[in-house]
Amino acid sequence: MVQLLAFVITLSLPSFVLADSSTQLSSLAPELERILSRGELIVGMHKEDSPPFFMQNRDNTLSGLDVELAYEISRSLGVSISFLRDAETFDEVVDMVKEGRADIAISSLSQTPKRALFVSFTKPYVELHQALLLNRLKASRYQVDIGQEASRTEEENDFAGYEWLTTSHIDIGTIAGSSYIDFAHRDYPKAQVVPFDSFSDAAASLLVGRLDAVLYDDAFVKSWTTHNTQEILFVRPLVISNRRDPIAIAVHWNERQLLSWLNTELEALESNGTLKKLKAYYLESEDWRED
Amino acid sequence: MKLSFCYFQKFCLHPLTLVLATASGICLGLLQPTIAAGLQSIGTAYISLLQMCVMPLLISAVLLSVGRMLQAGMSGRKLSALVVTIVVGLGSVALIASVCALIAEPGRSLDQQDQMLIGSQILEHESHSSDERSPSKFTGPQVIPENVFRAVSEGHNLPVLFFCIVMGIALGSLSSQSSEPVLAFVEATYNAMLKLIHWLMYALPLGLFCLFSAQVSKLGGGVLLALIDFVCLALFVCMLLMTIYIGIIWIKTRQSLLTVIIALKHSIIISLGTSSSMAAMPSTIEAMSDNLGFDRETANLVIPLGFTINPQGNVAVFSLMLVFMLQLYNIPIHPADVLSILVLSVLSGVAASTAPGIAGLTMLAIAFKPFNLPVDIGIFLLSAIDPVIDPLFTAVNVTGNAATTALVSPRSSAQRS
Q1: pLDDT at position A146 over 50
Q2: Interface confidence (ipTM) of the complex
Q3: Which residues of A29-54 are buried (b: 16+ CB within 10 A; e: fewer)?
Q4: Residue partners of B147: CB distance under 8 A and separation at least 6
Q5: CB contact, 8 Å: B132 with chain A?
Q6: Which residues of chain A are within 8 Å of residue B141 when distances are taken between CB atoms?
Q7: pTM for the full model?
């Protein structure tokens, strides 16, 4: 273990070191050997852009939090990188790793028990929260009276003032093949879950009143509301701060060494402040939009 | 010395002085907003002085008028005439406002840019308000006070009025010997309050200058500009209603139109400057009884009562807002809905005026709930345009109640000729 650590640290130096390490290569775990001898890391990603995690620029390069994280990882391994973006849903991204078509998946993937049956997850590198986009007109139908609201206690309530979300038979839209289908079923048991191919389709349906709410992660919802302020009169964004959505990297269940190495790498990026910088830039500010 | 003081008094009360003070206040607010904002404290002090007199005046006016009316053998017919006038009056206000809004369709005139602007303001407002807890919400109009002194100190006008009416009836039904000392005391208080307010009128130019400049300096662009169509419609409805009311007074008083307007000048200017119909109450009572010759007892009862249960301005704003929101959210308005709109506007408008201070806006829920309109958006939009809307509709309240007095008042001695 300590040997591997030392080896990894050495690897962050220029990669020509690799040229005469052929003897050391064979003492690596098979998955790492595969990647290093290929000289390329294949990163599985969703086909559609998902700002601010991964988006395609005008000059056809990729940018985003996940993209930069992927580059850090490939740099650390001393290999080049290629992004495999076949997957049409997030569940398909997980399949790519499960079937070995991609080495790892960095695609704002939610760590869920269901997925963990088939792949292994690193520790989360970003923690998002569930967020809803509510149709204001429909919400008014369920909202408690103003007089009653005043008597509500101050205690921390997941859905303070919005209890009707969990108790009424509402229509909640979310993205097909994403972890949010499961979240929706789990957290809103009385609701009808309607899958959509894209967030904009779901939002369009919400705006015409066919849905009561759209459920997704807060990064995406915030991004959408910033781009669509003209609809705020009609929809309301609501972050459920007690419902966490941990985002992690997925690897094949059998590739324990790769998983271990990734966790170590994430730990290192955390302690040298890289992760913090990435999060501040992409998640807490809007500066990345201008670039 | 006495002569120059006399000239000073005349100067302070002259309509031209008031216009000049208002105009220069507005100019200062537009050109030097920072200085103008600093004058807010003087303006607030002036309003506080006026409002200080309101509660004692209200109590003494109502006690006196009900007590005296009962002594003079006033019949219940008069009271029912008043109630009918109020109901019909409010209903017609709601009708006029709704019809104007239905024709003008302000809710459909918001373009993409307006919506974006309003949207971003709402986002900001909602992200801040999640941190603060609202203060004790107004739970709806109460009529009967458990503790009248607490009602007085908390500024709940309706319970206080209820108590005064009941007390006035009780006093009036006592024998002259028992009730006269009390009524005399009440009358002296009443006259003292009027005198106090009369003195405060000399400071009116200064007060107006400070108030208008501070108000104008606070006018931001943003939501106000986005809703400019609605604001213009509100202004039009306001002018229309005031014209009707002044017309009613004119017909009833049989004096020249100019006399009527000059008599009401103080009331209107104070309501525009302070956005407080209560602050304009004393001058309205004076105007109707002294200047225009209506029965003082009627004025003493109808005007304080009317500012609470006959708020034409509130009803007009709420019905405009209701129609606006229905149009904005594309909710179809069937002919049958118009009746609900009228009734709901009247109910919510009256409920709002019984609330102390700004809590009244939450009464919008009464009108919005049946249509499932988002109440918080309505309150947000109204609060945003409040600096312009509030003065206007306070003036409508004031002139409207003056008109109600004119309609209900018997011919007083000045008119019997």
Answers
A1: no
A2: 0.73
A3: eebbeebbeeeebbbbbbebebbbbb
A4: none
A5: no
A6: none
A7: 0.80
